[in-house]
Each structure stands twice: as structure tokens, then as C-alpha cells.
Amino acid sequence: MVLEYLKGSPRAFKILVASALIENMAFGLVIPFFAIYMEQEIEISLPLIGIVLAGYTIAGMPATVIGGMLADKIGRRAVLLASLGLMSVTMLMYIFATNFYTLLAVAMADSFVGFMYMPAANAMLADVIPSEKRPHAYSTLRIAWNVGIVFGPVAGAILVEAHSMKLLFIFGSLILASAFIMNMLFIRETKSDAVTDKITFRSVAAVANDHPFLVLCVLTGIFWFFFSQWISVLPIYAYNQLGMSEGAFGLLFAASAFMTIVFQLWVTSKMLSFRRSAVLVVGQLVAAGGFALIFYANDFYSLLACIMVITVGEIFFMSMISAVIADMAPEEKRGIYMGFSGLIQTLGQGGGFLFGMWLLDTMAVKEQIWLVFGFICGVTTVGYVVFAKMVRPEIDRPKKLGSRDHELTM
Length: 410
Fold this sequence. Notes:
By secondary structure, the protein is an all-alpha fold. The protein has 19 helices and no strands. It has helices spanning 2-7, 11-40, 46-73, 76-93, 100-115, 117-128, 134-162, 166-186, 201-205, 211-227, 233-240, 246-271, 276-293, 300-318, 321-328, 334-362, 369-379, 382-390, 393-396. The radius of gyration is 20 Å and the shape is globular.
């Protein structure tokens, strides 16, 4: 299905998909083991791990805005190339970090150059794909990301078991360098002439005046607040509380990515005729249930079942959210809108890293942390009801795709 969809797609979109696959192999190599690497290899405490992850996020916040501004001002291609090239350098720098302070500095530098990528990539996709095809396009991009994440953790698990964790960063750097070369050779600029050069920080702040868009950004920030536990608290919890090896958790990460590869496009095609706000509610509620169920997990297989539930919710949620953001962004401000939404999402993620690590360190009964996050995740879905009443009807209820327009009522 993916290959069939790509056949008639613009060249820029094909390169973005290939680049996402390659780039996320590097991400998948490292991220399942990163928190464990900090605890076991660098030997820093849980609160300091939370600070490193939060520092990573904080550094990414201005980068999302700057990346979006530059994408509108100088072009999407230049931002993509700068981000990929510099990421290959910062990824390699992790092997030279020997304590909390050097690790924090490298993480913040890596975050800053890395977070510039997504606003430019999302703006480029919106440039070349019409509105009615964007849900499928963003879903295809997610599948490419997850193909990389399937292979990354598996390869990472092999490297960790056979060699040192530091080898992960060397291989990750080489993979990112190959993505840079591919983009440099094959991708072309897509920025429209309608985009002006008058891009300022004031114009970024003005996005907040688009109240429906602001509400949606806050809601996605909340989603990433609890979803960030998937790459911060959960690896350490699985390692320390459930006795899992680093390789076993890498396989869980890969299993989630494999589910996305298999089901993302199919779910997206089924959800296109439903109200988008309702799809987002369903996705977040299912994910909330999955997080809460980790409270009962006591081995690899029960945790795998929880991960599968969370992934189902993620697939539903992600089938729509990027398309809604793209559709709400004016053509001449796509980079800025993408950057602003990334800023709020990154803020939520950073808060989640800090709160989650603090909670894991201070709670006497560690299992209860999942009930807390499941509750936050479930209760905040009411915000999408508010969003549905604020947003333009054509955004929440896209054109009918068949003889009947199915709706989920909320």
C-alpha cells in the first residue's frame, strides 16, 4: 500500500520518506537505550537524567521556532540540510561526554540542531501534497519513521549485547551523514513565491491569536507530556522494576514500530470520513488505558500487551493530528505554524520528562506512576470537545469520501 501510494507522489515527498526512514534508524539505535546509558555508563542519578532530558527538550523549543522561521525565509531545503549535517556531528559527540555537565551540553546542542528539521519537513510536505491527501501523506511519513525504528532498536540491541553502548552513537552518526548526502543530492526547494521575507519573532507570537490553533497546540503539548514517558521513565522502570535487559526493551520499542508500519495507513484510510476531533479523542483515550495498564505489568509479555494498547491509541491519534495542523496553517506561514506547534509540543515533552523522572524517584510505590499518567491522559481529552466547537467545520469535518459521512459523536 505504501509503495503504491508513493508511485504517483512528488519527488520531494519521496525523498522526505526515504530520509525519515534513514534518520530514524539512527534515532532507533540510540533512544531505547539512552536513559539506561545515562544511568549505567555515565552513572548519574534519576533526577539528573530528568534534567538532561528536559535540557534536551528546552534547547529544542527555540529551534522549532527558528527552524520554522528559516524554512519560510530562506527555504525548506537549506534548513533540512543544515539540521541533518549538524546532527551527524552532535550524535558523534555523545561518546566524548563523561559526566553530567558534558552530557547536558551535548544533548542540548544535539537537540537544537535536530529540532529544526521537523518544521521544515512538515512545511515541505504541505507544499507538495494537497489538503485532501495530507492524512495519507503524513501517515506514510510515520510509517517510514517506524520502519527505521524497527531496524534501529534491533540493531542497537545486538550492538549493546556484543559491544559497548558508545558504538551506538558512532553508527548513528554515520547513518545521519548518509541522510544528509541523500538530501543534498536529490531534494529540491519547494517554498512558494507567496512566502515573504518578512519573518520575525513577532509574527511567530501572533500565531497565538489564532485561538483554535492555539487550543490544538496546547492539547498536543499535553499529549506529549504523558507520551514522553515512553522514552524516559519506561526504559528505566522496565530495567529496574521488572528486571528487563536493555535488549528486551529495544525489542518492545521495535514491536510498537512494527505495529505502526502494518496498521497506520489502513487506520488512516478508515478514519478519513470521521470527525477529526473525535478520532483524536479515541486515540488519546486508548493510549490512556494502555499507560494505566502498565500498573499491572510484571514481565516482558504483560508489558508488551500494554505497549500494543498504547500503540493502537498512538496510531489513531497520529492518523489525524499532523494533517489538521497543516490544514490550519496559511500557505505563507506554514513554517511558522509548524514551528509554533512544535514549540508547544516540545514544552509539553520537556515538562513530562522532568515530572516523570521526579515522580519515579519520589514515589514509594513505583507502579502507581502509570495510574497518574493514565488519569492525566484520559481527563484532558475533554479539550478536543472544546476544539471541535471552535474550529472551522471544514477542518473538523473534511469532504465526504463516499455516499455517507460517518461521524463519531462526542
